[in-house]
Amino acid sequence: MTLGAVIRERRHALGFTLRQLGDATCLSAQYLNDVEHGRREPMVDATIERLANALNTSSDYLYFTAGKLPPDIRRMAVSERAADEVFRVMRAQLAREQEERERDERLQPRE
After folding, report:
1. Could you count the other beta carbons within 10 Å of the beta carbon of residue 66?
2. How far apart are CA 73 and CA 52, in angstroms?
3. Which of 11, 32, 50, 108 has the highest local Cβ count within 10 Å?
């Protein structure tokens, strides 16, 4: 799922219009529309943080869907080996979760 899709889904789930989300985050409705449709990406950490707060979701999840690393992770001086290990573990966990979702879907009775 893309960052824009996550924002749109959460916004709709909360019953917010683009203007209401814009008011809550000090961002324009047009900018938010562009983000939701993939025409722009939040470039500033504060924007992602404001969106996470307004949408009652994790900023880590928004960073993840944006393909970015959170600022606290970026500030850490890590070696190439440590970075490789972090991504290896993350890939393994995500693969396990995907397998579980697929298994659960196969086990659900069809109507």
Report:
1. 20
2. 17
3. 32
